[in-house]
Model the fold of this input.
Amino acid sequence: MAKDSRGPVIYWMSRDQRVEDNWALLYAQKLALQRSASVHVVFCLVPKFGDATIRQFDFLLRGLKEVAAGLKAKNIPFHLKIGKASTEIPALLDELKATAVVCDMSPLRVPKQWAHDVAEACQVKEVPVVQVDAHNIVPVWAASDKQETAARTIRKKIMLSLATYLTDFPKVVDHPHASKDTARPDWEVAEKSLEVDRSVKPVNGIVPGAAAAHAALLDFTTRLGKYANDRNNPNVQALSGLSPWLHFGQISAQRCALKVREVGESKGSDVQKGCEAFIEESVVRRELSDNFCFYNENYDRLEGAAGWAQQTLKDHAKDKREYVYSLEELEHGKTHDDLWNASQNQMVREGKMHGFLRMYWAKKILEWSPSPREALERSIKLNDRYELDGRDPNGYVGCMWSICGVHDMGWKERPVFGKIRFMNYAGCKRKFDVPAFVALSMVEARQPLQVSHPARGGRHDDQRSSAKGTDEAP
Done:
C-alpha cells in the first residue's frame, strides 16, 4: 500500500460503464470509506479504438452521460479525460493526491496493455492498483487457471461457482466524504476529439445507458418461453437483444442472470427451460469467451486455433471456391445468397445480427474468401465496424468458432472447410422460413433510416478482485 493510505481512491472505469451493480465501483467505495476519503471515477477516452466507428462511440458517450449523472447523485465526481490512461491516471493521482487505484478487467490485448501501463506508472508513485472483474459473474481468474477447450470443460466449474458468486449486489451509497470536485466533463470537446469513421451512423431505436438496458431486460423476461423454443429462429423475437448494453458494461451480466432466474423459478416449464438456456448462453458461453481471450493472446488469429483446425485449414487453403467475393462486395451485401445479403444488410442498418445468422454469415465468409486467414480478418473487420457489440470477446470467439473451429471438434471433411463444421442454405431452410426473413429485410431496407447524433460489496472478496502490488501489473 502507499505510504499514506488516507487519501482519495480513484476508480478507473473502462469496460464496465455503469454505477449500480458494479463490483469495481463498490470495491473502490469500500476502500474510500475505510479511509474516510473521497472516491473519484475517471474514464479515459481514446480518439480511436480498432475499427470502431461513430456508431459505437456515440453509444459509449451517451451512456457515460448517464453514468456521470448517476455518480453526481451519489456525491462521486466523474472525470472524463481525453487521452491514454497511462498518462491521465498518474496526472489525476497527482492532482487529487490519491492513494489507490481500482480498475475493471478486459481480457483483450489493448485494454490489458493499458492496465499494465497504468500499473507501471502507479508503481513509480508507490500507489497500489487493484483490478476487479466486474464483467463476469465468476471472475475469469477464479473460473479457471487455464484456457478451456470447450463449453463442456468450463461448464461444471462455472455452475458450481454460481452459489458463491451469483448473489445480489449492495447499493452504491451516497458518499459521505466530500471532495474538491474538479470534474467538469466537456461532452462536445470529447465528441470532437474522436478520429473515427463517421459514415457508419448511430442506430436509431437502441437507446444507450443503464435505464434502457434494464427496460430491455424486463421486456426479455416476458419472452423467456420463446427463448427456450425459438432462439434459433430469426423470424421470432425470442433473443434478449442485450448484447450492446452488456458489451459496454451498461448492464451487469450478473443482474441479468439474477432477474432471469427469479422469473424462471416462478413460471411454467417453457419459461424454466428458457431460463436454463439463457444461463447457458449468457453465463457459460459468454464467460468461456472471456476465458479464451484471457489465456490465448492469439484470440483473433489463426494461430489461436487448435492444432487440428490449423492443419485442416492449411490442407484446404488452396481448394477451389465456387464463389470468391471481394471485401467490398461482402460489405455491401452483393453475393448470390439472399439470406447472407439480408443478414449483412441487417447488421449494417441496425448494428446487430441474429445470433444464429452470425454463425452462418461467418462460415460463408470462409467459403467465399481467397484464404482462411483473409476470411477471419474480413469477418472480424465487418463485425467490429458495424455491430454495436463489436470488439468483444464474444465476437472474436464467434468468428473463431465459425472459421477456425475454436471450442468445437472436427467434423466430416469436405472441400474448403476441411474438418471445420459446415453450414449451408438448405440447413437454414430446415430451421426457419428463409424467404420470410429475406422479404422482411427488403421491406425494412426501404424504410428511411433515422439516426440520432452524439451532441462485488456485501462481499468484496479476494477471489473477485485481483490485488496487484507495486511490482506487478494487473
Q: What stands out?
A: The radius of gyration is 23 Å. Residues 391 and 459 are 31 Å apart (CA to CA). Residues 448-463, 465-474 have pLDDT under 50 and may be disordered. Residues 7-135 form a domain with the Rossmann fold fold (CATH 3.40.50.620).
